[in-house]
Amino acid sequence: MADPNCIFCKIAQGEIPAEKIYDDGTVFAVRDINPKAPTHVLVIPYEHVEALADADAALVAAAAHCLEAAPGIARALGVTGAGYRLVANQGPDSGQEVPHFHLHILAGRRLGPMG
Ligand code: 5GP
Ligand code: ZN
User: Fold this and answer.
1) For ligand 1, which residues put their CB under 6 angstroms from it?
2) In the predicted model, what is the mean pLDDT of residues 45-54?
3) What atom of ligand 1 comes closest to residue 104's alpha carbon?
4) Which CA distances in Å does 106 have to 6, 16, 55?
5) How far is the CA of 79 from the centre of ligand 1 (A)?
6) What would the mean pLDDT of 41-59 be, rounded to a whole number?
7) Distances (CA, A) of 40 to 1, 29, 43, 54
8) Is the pTM of this model over 0.85?
């Protein structure tokens, strides 16, 4: 169920224009508007999946599909050989800004330690 206040739901529904560099009908990918690495792509389920902890099995499956799609997106971006980082922020301590599940694909430089 789309959340009318959610920026990723608005992108999903085409209310906010964004170039979808990948789209399989369950998840889509866009370049991050404020990239933290030379390649920074967001993989986003069409469904408004908020906190994973509160999601039912169907919504968890929609979110999990981001992980299934990520290797093909990374390959298309040409970053498979050098490697990439997948990040999914959850909640305030993670710094999550948008409360609609998404996977970050970060690549194109040595990313350094997590933390
Ligand atoms: P979070 O901190 O929630 O894990 O990540 C949210 C990401 O969404 C941030 O990296 C931010 O730059 C990105 N973002 C926020 N608004 C937009 C938008 O309208 N378009 C795109 N492409 N990215 C956005
Ligand atoms: Zn949403």
Assistant:
1) 7, 16, 18, 30-34, 42, 89, 95-98
2) 96
3) 4
4) 23, 23, 25
5) 21
6) 96
7) 27, 10, 10, 27
8) yes
Neighbours of 17 (CB within 10 A): 7
| Residue 115 reports pLDDT greater than 90 | no
Q: Which ligand is nearest to the CA of 47?
A: 2
Domain boundaries, the chain: 7-107
Average pLDDT over residues 95-99: 97
The top-level CATH class assigned to 7-107 is: alpha beta
48 among known catalytic residues: no
Q: What is the pLDDT of residues 53-89, one digit of tens each?
A: 999 999 999 999 999 999 999 999 999 999 999 999 9
- 19, 86, 97, best to mutate for ligand 1 pocket (most atoms within 8 Å of CB): 97
